[in-house]
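pasting for ref. prot 1 ->
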Amino acid sequence: MVVTTVHEGKRDKRDNTISQTAWLLHNFSEDTTFNCDGASNDELADALATLVGQLMELGILRGVVGTGAP
């Protein structure tokens, strides 16, 4: 399986004096909506990965979100 990077972050927009472990998320599917009363684990995981990816793009978190398995 081919892995494609979707989001990547360097954490360059915040205080850089604190070291931070990089996030590494795989099998990403963008999902910005879910039903709070009945979402599946897969749906919640995709929504969380979408949020983490957006925080990476803002430079708040460091890491990589990609499609495919590691």
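and prot 2 ->
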Amino acid sequence: MLDQLLCHADQQHLIELATLLAVADKSLSWDGKSKDEITSATDLNKVSIEKGEMESKLIAELESKNKKPVFLSFGIATINPIEERFIEKIKAVPLPKTEEPETRVQVATAIMKELLAEKKSELPFVPKLMLFELMLVALCGGSISNIQWPLLKEVQHHYRLKDFIFDDLLERAETVNREVSKTISIILE
């Protein structure tokens, strides 16, 4: 949407952050099985993320608008570097804890901090625009999950955005999301 106001480097950074936000709360599968279906024959090294359709489309749209692709796509089972980092860190967690929100927040926050490290913005609108776009990604599922919320707050704190700015951006993102949903409903009636 407004991401075209960002320079190429900031667009790439936004895609990385959005990807992390989109996968942080999604279900995992091991060798194609859920945690409850795992047997002794299951290959626990084959971990994948069951991505949400709406978030995937939004991120693909961000990537397609970007001048150079950030992640190479070779079919449906594409894994990008952010997903790989998330999977590698989640594999280091004891299996019973991998689906716990606290564990997901810890893993995702560690990656978020790495992505934000040393990132500064000369222009004051850039962090606000990025946070707004990230809120839209988080709202794709209807509401911001308890795993996504701390990640959004991490972006806010990193860029030292005041609470009233965060709240105002959130209100605007919720309004945009609601209006888009209504418009789609009217069109599909």
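DSSP finds seven helices and two strands in the chain.
Residues 72-77 have pLDDT under 50 and may be disordered.
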